[in-house]
Design goal:
Arc Repressor Mutant, subunit A, Tetracycline Repressor, domain 2, 11 helices, mainly alpha
Length: 220
Amino acid sequence: MDGETERPVTRIQREKQDIILEAALEVFSLHGFRGATIDQIAERAGMSKPNLLYYFPRKDEIHRRLIGQLLKTWLAPLEEMDANGDPFPEIRSYIRRKLEMARDFPRESRLFANEMLQGAPRIIEMIEVDLKNLVDEKARVLLAWMDQGKIARTDPYHLIFSIWATTQHYADFDVQVRAVLGPGRGGEGRFEDAARYLEHLFLYGLTPRPRSIDKMSGKS
């Protein structure tokens, strides 16, 4: 209300909110926004529904808080790409950071994927502003490296999309990956195997080639 200052959140209130958000992450990542219910979240959090509603009156408030935190986490690996660095170590590190996220934050990845599949109705403004601005910035970095002859020329946006797609696959389709690899290769080592493969795939493809090779392959 006008003239009133918002009361600071106490330690106990913050702890309760964290418990609710952790429970909601599990429920949303399994059922999506539409399939998740306040009752499911309350049960997962180990509290009554009225108690939960005291901290978050609506389901969309919980979801919005989770998505807002998630997008900051999602942007961090790309933000760390240094325009003044050597492009190959920078791109290699970016691939590694994205795979580490797939390994360490699979529920968050599924939450984000579910939101995208629904048309991103709750975070479209964040995507059109925060995410787009960052990708535009890093696309300019990649283009500068191309202009300097440090990496092969390609579409920087689709390069970023490809890294997203291949790394997040190991979170969103983890059950499939482990089932296909089998017990011998489906353990924690699968992420290191994936990192080595993706590094080779992208870095080999970005290695500048002699012009004569490009002519032989039909490229101008």
